[in-house]
Amino acid sequence: MAGLLAAALTASLAVGCTTSDGPGDDGRGRERPSSGASESRVNGASVLAVKIDNVRAARPHTGLNAADIVYVEQVEAGLSRLLAVYAQKLPEVIGPVRSARESDLELLRQFNRPMLAFSGAQSKLLPLIDKAPLQAEPPEKATGAYFRGTDRPSPHNLYLRPGRLMSSAPGTSALTTGFRFGAAPAGGIPETSRTVRFPAARFTFTWSGSQDRWLVAMDGKAARTTDGQRVTAGTVVVQYVKVRRSAFHDSAGNYTPYTETVGAGRAAVLRDGHVYHVNWKRPTATDGTAFTTDDGRPMNFQHGQVWVVLAKAS
Questions:
Q1: How far is the first Cα of the chain from the last one, in angstroms, to the nearest whole number?
Q2: Closest C-alpha among 274, 312, 284 to residue 299
Q3: E strands within 53-94?
Q4: Do 248 and 229 touch, CB atoms closer than 8 A?
């Protein structure tokens, strides 16, 4: 019986990656409005945001290539965690799912009552999550949507079946990030590789002309999903932000970094084998983030999955 159960769970994980990116333009972002906030708030469309574990023991991920946006955040001890946002595709399985952080609440305010899938949080943070304008869906609330896999030890084996939280993907109008998609502006500098370092994690993005995508590597190893496909991005944004100590800490006394995504600063946008040094601005938490060139023109992104690495400004 145990062997049959293990086989069933492994099959479920494999199915969960059937909607991952392929080479070239996958169409995501093609119908996306330049600013869909008002439309989204009228029609009630809500994205699904999933907090994904990203220590070495949690890899490879499942369902990550189906996300529209992948945010990379610093957490305790200099490690990283991912916040994947789904609007146009819902894979059958996503994970592994881990705990939320205070920074997520500010980051998610740009969406219309987003659904947040996560597994736990520090006890003093839970009341803030309950009060936030989002739909919290942890395992204790949505028991039928989560399961434990047998491919790795706990706590790195909790997976989500998103179809049990929402019947269908909400569509592009729910992506109220302010991102713009289209032809690249002039002024890009050729660049085929960029590494971003956290105190205890690093990400490298390498341009592949044959795939028209940036290939993602984590901690020096090519990132792949559980079905063996490479993790890729159409656009990579290295957004330099203020990272300060929050009031929360883990059981070992490590304080959680708080990543401020409201404000203004500089960013490096990678697309089409080039880097563009731009400005970012997000006036309030309910606004999306505008990226502009130094002469004030909007910075267009390439169609497809966007990675936003929230790096500490120097």
A1: 55
A2: 274
A3: 69-74, 80-86
A4: no
Q: Using H for helix, E for strand and C for coil, what is the string for 186-197?
A: CCCEECCEEEEE
> Which two tokens mark 81?
């965690």
What pLDDT, in 10s, does the model give residues 165-176?
999 999 999 999
Work out the pLDDT band at 261, boundaries 50, 70, 90: very high
What amino acid is encoded at 197 in this protein?
Answer: R
130: helix, strand or coil: helix
pLDDT digits (tens, 9 = 90+) for 140-163: 999 999 999 998 999 999 999 999
SS3 101: coil
Instruction: Tell me the two tokens of residue 89.
Output: 């595709």
Q: What is the pTM of this model?
A: 0.88
Token look-up 């970012």 returns: 280
Token duo for residue 30: 């093609």
Of 78, 301, 270, 304, give the one whose Cα is nearest residue 192. 270
Mean pLDDT computed over 267-279: 98
